[in-house]
Amino acid sequence: MPRQAVCHLGHRLYAFWERFRDDFRTTTRDGSDYAYHYLSGLLRMDTKRHFAGIGREAGISGQNLQHFMSESPWAGPAVCRRVQEELKATPALTAGGVLLIDDSADEKAGAQSAGAGRQDNGRLGKVEMSQVAVLLSYLNRKVAQGFWSWIDGALFLPEGWFGTSHEKLRQRLGVPPERRFKTKGELAWELIERALAADLPFDLVGFDCLYGRSGELRAKVRQAGKLYMAEVPADTQVYLDKPLLGVPARQSPRGRPPSAVQVLAGEAVCVDSLREQVPWHTVQVRATDRGTLCDPFATRRVWTVHAGEAVEEWLVMREEADGKHSYALCNASAKTSLEQLAWGKCQRYFIERSNQDAKSELGWDELPAQKYRAWEHHLALTVLASWFIAQTKYEWARDDGRDPALLRELDTEVLPALSVANVRTLLRAVMPLRQMSEAQATDLVIEHLLNRTRSRKSRLKKQRLLKRTVAGAT
Question: Residue 316 to residues 25, 293, 299, 300, 334: CA-CA distances in angstroms?
Answer without folding.
Answer: 48, 17, 5, 7, 12
